[in-house]
């Protein structure tokens, strides 16, 4: 009986590692090719060099696009966190009419295809006479990020004991003080996760930036422009740096979330 049970377990383990290899294989290949000592991508890799990384970190166009992406991501994180937490509080409140409808409408940007979302926001921006550029990009990215922040905050709120807020209100706290002293600290793990998720979504968003952007380029737009001239180890070096930074941010977010939950 034990041998029969080992068969499906081994099959699941093999399927898992095949899936991991499928995910990590292209990333490892991309990283390896970023060290190739040539102006083109080919096999075998041959001689290796760090010159491409030195060129990228000294490239003013790359640095400008990086800082512009960080600026947009910071604004998107702030807007989407405030709006997402507010909608989560609204949906979780008692005696709210059309609660299911509010939740469905708030989740809509997460399920609408990116191309459709970008076109619709571009039409809206043109309708209200907002020029394309930074403000339009922040609006588009925030609309896309709000549902993810809201779901994280709402999931955390549903595990919160209701008697905590009731006890604070019985002790004389008004609604604002109860939210600031009780609800907000309880939401910290979800807020940390939502903020990091919103920032990463913004930095990675190409489609909405393409439709809403102005003359300044973000990291995805810069890499897309460079791809028009063909693949080169320089593009791989850029992608590797972004990948490492994303991984570090993600790991830190996981650490901060776990630490906040333990507290």
From TrEMBL:
Q: How does it sit in the membrane?
A: Multi-pass membrane protein
Principal localisation = membrane
Q: Which InterPro entries match?
A: Bact_Polyamine_Transport, MetI-like, MetI-like_sf
One GO cellular component assignment for this chain's record is: plasma membrane
One GO BP on record is: transmembrane transport
Q: Where are the transmembrane segments?
A: 12-35, 66-91, 103-128, 134-154, 235-253
The cross-references to SUPFAM superfamilies, in alphabetical order and at most eight, read:
MetI-like
Q: Give its localization.
A: Cell membrane
Show where the ABC transmembrane type-1 domain sits.
66-253
* Source organism superkingdom: Bacteria
Its keywords, alphabetically, are: Cell membrane, Membrane, Transmembrane, Transmembrane helix, Transport
Checking Gene3D superfamilies in the record gives: MetI-like
Q: Which family does it belong to?
A: Belongs to the binding-protein-dependent transport system permease family. CysTW subfamily.
From the Swiss-Prot or TrEMBL record, give the protein name: Probable spermidine putrescine ABC transporter permease protein
Specify the species. Answer: Aureimonas frigidaquae
Q: What is the lineage of its organism?
A: Bacteria, Pseudomonadati, Pseudomonadota, Alphaproteobacteria, Hyphomicrobiales
